From TrEMBL:
GO terms for molecular function: metal ion binding; metalloendopeptidase activity. GO terms for biological process: proteolysis. Signal peptide: none annotated. Belongs to the peptidase M16 family. This is Peptidase M16. It comes from candidate division WWE3 bacterium RIFCSPLOWO2_01_FULL_41_18.
Amino acid sequence: MYKKITLKNNIRILLVPSKDSKSVNLSIYVKAGSRYENEKNNGIAHFLEHMAFKGSEAFKSQFELSKFVEGFGGDWNAGTGNEHIEYYIRAESSHLKDIVYVLDQMLFHPLYLPQEIEKEKGVIIEEINMNNDMPEYKVGILLEKVMWPNHPLGRFICGTKETVSSFSRDDFTSYQDDFYKSSNMVIGLSGKFDEEQALGLLKEAFLKVSDGKLRSYEPLSGVQKEPKLIVESRETEQSHLCFGFRGYPKDDKKRITLKLVSMILGGGISSRLFQKIRTELGLAYYIKASSRSLMDTGAFFIAAGVNNEKFLQAIDATIKEVNKIKSEGVEKEELRRSKEHLKGLLALKFESHHDMNSFLTEQELLSKKVLSYEDYVKEIEKVNLSDISEVVSEVFVSDGLNLAVVGRVKEEEVNSLLSL
């Protein structure tokens, strides 16, 4: 399915050929992100990702760079998470040489012009303002703050207005020196390409990337001992809530079982929460469940936007559904449907070169073992009803419950409901 090659400087390359494709996708993943930050430099990984688009040695401005990429029909973007930064370009397969050249320029030859840094501070501050103004985004930021207090995982990836305003060119060059090292990166190439030519281009561009000592992250410690609530009262037409529970890390097989639980509870229109909260009770426009795995922890989320006047009823009804899956388990047919749903979503992901690339490359960067599509499907099929019961009993506990709320709600109104 894919081929892994490690260059002499320890950069790992995953090749995923598709002869029937007309395009090619090149992604570069860096093991960095917000969990490697502290209070003082919170937001620098995200800011540095922005600066990769602001000009390089060969492209003196954002306009020159974007004109070149869009001139060969390239679709490009980047993103910063808790544990990685991704850069990618995809285009018609004959432009692979151009793609490699541009990503090399963006990652290893950025200009970091002081005047561009100052302008981008304003852009990112507006991004922070946007997230703060949108309750459905802000509630997620608050939930992470209460789930992982006084820890990098609990801080907003964009940083704060104060940290963003403080960054200088020296901060970016220092961060790049610390994290953009060969053994701290994985390159994923998928689509239509000639392997010999592709490897030649990648070696020419990236063999010169230096290696060195890698930065460690602050591990999570301690166990949550009581339910936690955070409320931001504001005038809104709809109140937004987000429940959070501790989940499983990337290399724990139970994470797949928890993913199936998220499908059963809130993974679609036929899910339990959608049917109860929206269809039967008419309390919400959206309600969904999801799970996420990190290197040493994980999380399970339930998010909803609900009627202001019936907010407490929505919280109560949601908690009852969580308790119900704990006490009664799930039906055999319900588990079968959730497996088919999850396998279907994975199959659709593998129809996209970029999504498939991301799925494999992120695992190579952050996990001990890379699961192919076939491997992942096998793990899904192994899950049985007793596995579901075991996971929900471990995850859905009162002392591990966290709830964030944004809307016309008072903290004392919610406190009495905060238990399982």
